[in-house]
Amino acid sequence: MEIPNLKGCRLLASCRGSEAKEPEATTLDKEVDAMTNATTVQSHEAGGWPSIDWATATHAVQRLQQRIFRASQQGRWRQVRSLQKLLLRSDANLVLSVRQVTQVNDGRATPGVDGRIATTAKERWRLLTDLRQARPHRPQPVRRVYIPKANGKQRPIGIATIEDRVRQHVVKTALEPAWEAHFEACSYGFRPGRSVHDAIAACFNRLNGRCTARWVLDADIRSAFDRISHVYIDQRLGNFPARRQIQAWLKAGYLEHEQFFSTTEGTPQGAICSPLVANVALDGLADLLASRFPDPGRRTRPYFGYIRYADDLVVTSPDKDRLEAAIPVIQEWLAGRGLELNADKTRIVQIDDGFKTRRSEDGRSTTVTSSVARSTPTSITDCFGCSGRGRVGATRASRRSGSKPSTSTRSELASGSSP
Question: How many CB atoms within 10 Å of residue 74?
């Protein structure tokens, strides 16, 4: 999805049409002011953090997100930009972002380079006051730490300061609904209303006994989060009001062993806005494959089956030759984003031979064959190779309890939490 750059554009009165005459923006501005006033700091000086009206704040943010979602669906980019500005400066959005970062997220007790955390109501209130009074500033570098991977290597994680994390959540709340209206349906990672269970069901639908797909492209993108092009992300964000702020976070650098390192590419793993930025960068491959390789029998449907969860993707096909011809197309598409396929881990396999997982929670790899893949949807978990807390763990729990994954539907707008 390419959002046109309308900054500085002016239309004649005769060319504006009914949309320019619509008083929706003015009415919305008044409604937002009325709803957010109930959550402002000035309204709760006596009660402090516990006296905030969370229901009113949530309703105000969700209503703005729903309006952004609908305006983006209808291609009304001027209104999308105006509503995003309202949401970016909404006090209700700031209040909910502080609560999300300091009370809900797993890293709420993990400090950044400044060592600051907010674990008590008094500290959260002070953080909220500082953020409301502070002007936009240059973000601080993230603190680089390493966590072990299943293959024995180390995964770099960037921990931002608590103030930058709150600001990132504010920006994510305004950016996400505009893109959710246009994200491809076969993308399931880090999206509101979707989970790894939907990706499992999609894999089952492409590999069960009623389908003709017999070949699988098990693709691996080399260091996807660490190599995404900053220039491409800036182009994809278009005229988003907080585009410069996102670029500042991407170029903030990191501290490792008290030494500063600059960043010219990639997005820090562990940042609140990183999964959304990655989804923005990796969106569009399904449409490209559908246009370049249509189904000879029914040209209105794609020839390949494509499922993506974050940076993990699987392409299914009934024909190995066409699947081999699609690899250069995928490589060229990734090159425009500063990415490439990992030749050592990317391979085409026959479903009867099976293929192993790359990232399982306990570090073990599981071979998936056609007899396993075509028997039950929940067995596709290992072939997809999802990882992380709340993903594989939740899937294995559902497998033990005998429950089936949920059916994939077009996700509706919801206020998503950070992964």
Answer: 12
